[in-house]
Amino acid sequence: MNPLQERSPDPDRDALVDLVDFKWLMAGHGWWVDLSRLRRDAAYAGECVRHGLASGSGLLRRRSAEVMPLLARRACTP
Fold it and tell me: Which of the residues 2, 24, 40, 53 has the least number of beta carbons within 10 Å of its own beta carbon?
């Protein structure tokens, strides 16, 4: 396993890293993502993920699918 791809023992840190990765992939395709809003606004998060899933980039589509459960989990916690 690539040591750069190992997960940390802190799942919140891993989730943040995944969201930042998603944000920069989106930026590379011309969609600017407000990370703070992404983490607190379910409608905005859904819109961002839909853009990512509709992208022509396989990597962005994969990352979008991976962050969906992270964002859904955040929407369920106060």
Answer: 2
Cβ pair 52, 32 in contact under 8 A: no
CA angle 38, 64, 37 (to 5 degrees): 5
Assess if residue 65 is contained within a domain. Answer: yes
For the chain, list residues with pLDDT below 50.
1-4, 8, 10, 76-78
Q: How far apart are CA 55 and CA 74, in angstroms?
A: 24
Q: Is 3 inside any structural domain?
A: no
**1 falls within a domain:** no
Are 46 and 4 a contacting pair, CB within 8 Å? no
Please name the residue that has the structure tokens 């919140």: 12
The Cα 78–Cα 75 span in angstroms is 8
pTM of the predicted model as reported, rounded to 2 decimal places: 0.76
Expressed as residue numbers, the domain containing 54 is 10-76
